[in-house]
Amino acid sequence: MEDTAPAPPPHAGSTVRRIDTQSAPVILKVEDVALSFATGGLFDKQGRFDVLKGINLEVRRGETLGLVGESGCGKSTLARVIAGLIPATSGRVLLGDADMAHLDAAGWRETRRAVQLVFQDPFGSLNPRRRVGAIIGDPFRIHHVASGTDRKNRVQELMERVGLNPEHYNRFPSEFSGGQRQRIGIARALALNPGLIIFDEPVSALDVSIQAQVLNLMSKLQRELDLTYLFISHDLAVVRQVCNRIAVMNKGRIVELADAQAIYANPQDDYTRTLLAASVTPPPQHFARSRDLVQTIDWAAA
Ligand SMILES: Nc1ncnc2c1ncn2[C@@H]1O[C@H](COP(=O)(O)OP(=O)(O)OP(=O)(O)O)[C@@H](O)[C@H]1O
């Protein structure tokens, strides 16, 4: 299946699913999280760099929370703290009732299943020597969920769900387009029925028509599977289409968090206004093409 289907311009309309963000249960809570990296005094006299400063946010079941801010403000670092890949220096990350700082082995396994990270990786790629069926089937293999024909059937169901041809199970990543490879990453993230999927800039390097297809796929999957997303982007025009609420981040702090409509209609913070002013949709030729854009965390190696 090729990415040639006509698609609406990605910034033309919203695909946001309506949910009651006040009453839906909280599945993730970030409480006063701070993170400092040691710099050895290279960049500042204290010998540390405060990347995250007093971060508070909640993600409610079924919503898409956007996390927006300029490059370097700490979005990806926060994603990694939430996914349990980097411990916070202080504060708490609660997944359901479980404090990520105090998980036993079973708790870690559950976290690795429950939180999936899908991100833009212009330099990396899906392992070119592995077949797509094996790549998408990794979570089943790693978590001992399914093997043999059962695993193959489940992988092919996932391929179908994300709009890939299941008969392409034995193909290599190089035989897929950029948009299709994103679908491969998304299929792998879906494998273990995650409670939360963190998308880190999943469409920012894609051709504009392919962006629309991937955003539409994300919305379709969310409706069908009742998924919860944390959507990270530097571009307020992109998150507008998919987010119920938006957190605006600047220099390691959340400076504003509100319903998406309120952010656009009545931004409260100067920095949000600056970001909004900068989020004019660029013409298609300004989007770089990328051969391989999304990679999920290889939990076996993490
Ligand atoms: N392991 C590390 N050690 C030291 N500094 C780091 C480390 N990881 C990230 N940083 C710094 O933390 C800051 C935030 O980085 P981060 O990647 O989280 O930002 P971002 O908002 O996601 O930006 P981008 O969209 O460009 O990825 C940057 O200044 C980065 O250089």
TrEMBL record:
Annotated InterPro entries: AAA+_ATPase, ABC_transp_ATP-bind, ABC_transporter-like_ATP-bd, ABC_transporter-like_CS, P-loop_NTPase
GO terms assigned for molecular function: ATP binding
On the tree of life, the source organism's domain of life is: Bacteria
* Every ABC transporter domain range: 28-276
Keywords from the UniProt entry: ATP-binding, Nucleotide-binding, Plasmid, Transport
Instruction: Give the CDD domains listed for this entry.
Output: ABC_NikE_OppD_transporters (cd03257)
Q: Name one Pfam family in it.
A: ABC_tran
Question: What family is this?
Answer: Belongs to the ABC transporter superfamily.
Q: What is this protein called?
A: ATP-binding cassette domain-containing protein
Species source reads Devosia neptuniae
